[in-house]
Amino acid sequence: MQLFIDTADVAQIKEALSWGIVDGVTTNPTHVMKTGRRPLEVYREILALTDGPVSLETIALDAKEIVKEGRKLARLGKNVVVKVPVIREGLKAVKELSADGIKTNVTLNFSPLQALLAAKCGATYISPFVGRLDAVGHTGMDLVRQIRTIYDNYGYETQILTAAIRHPEHVLQAALAGSDVCTMFFDTLKLLYDHPLTDVGLDIFLKDWAKAVAEAK
Ligand code: E4P
Fold first, then answer.
1. Global model pTM greater than 0.85
2. Domain range holding 139?
3. Residue 123: CATH number of its domain
4. Of 77, 90, 112, 197, which has the highest C-beta tally within 10 A?
C-alpha cells in the first residue's frame, strides 16, 4: 500500500520524504491557505522535492474551466495529479483530462456510487473521506470496503486513495480493506512507527548492552 502525506507544508513534506516511506503528496485549498503563501510557489517547491504523485486541486465548477485549469496544473510537472471534486461537471472534466493522459484524483467522495461514476470516467484515484463520514455518525471505512468490492467486480483500475484519515487505526483498516493508498497528516505518519513495547524493549536492550560491555573482561 502506498502512503501519501496530506499537506502543503513544504518543510513537513521534506522531512517525511527523508524517512523513505512516503510515496506521494496530496494538497487541497485548505492546506494551501494554511501556509499563507502563494499557491504556485508552494506547488513548485513541492514538485521539486519528489517524483511521486502530487495532487493539486482545481477550483472551477464548470467542466470547460476545470479542464483548462487542470491542463495548466498538469504543465507544472510530470507527476502532477489533477484533483477534481466529484460533481457532474467535475466528472465530465475528468473524462476529458483522462483522455489526454492527465492523471486525476476525484475528491470529496462520500458514496460508493460516486466512486463508480469516477471509475467510469477514467479517474486515476478516488478519494473517500473516511474521517468526515465518521464525524457524522457513519462508518467511513464501510465506504472503502464497498468501493473495493465494486472496483473488483468490474475490474476498474481506479486506485482507492483513502483520505481524511484521523489516526493509525484508519490506516490499518484501510490496508485490510485493500485500499491502494492512504493519505494522512505528518503527525499521523509519525504515529505509524510507534508501539510502547518497542520503546520498553529497546530501553532494556540498551541497558543490557551497556552492562555487557562494562562487565566484559
Ligand atoms: C485528501 O486528499 C484531502 O486533502 C484530505 O484528506 C481532507 O481531509 P480533512 O480536511 O477532513 O482532513
1. yes
2. 2-216
3. 3.20.20.70
4. 90
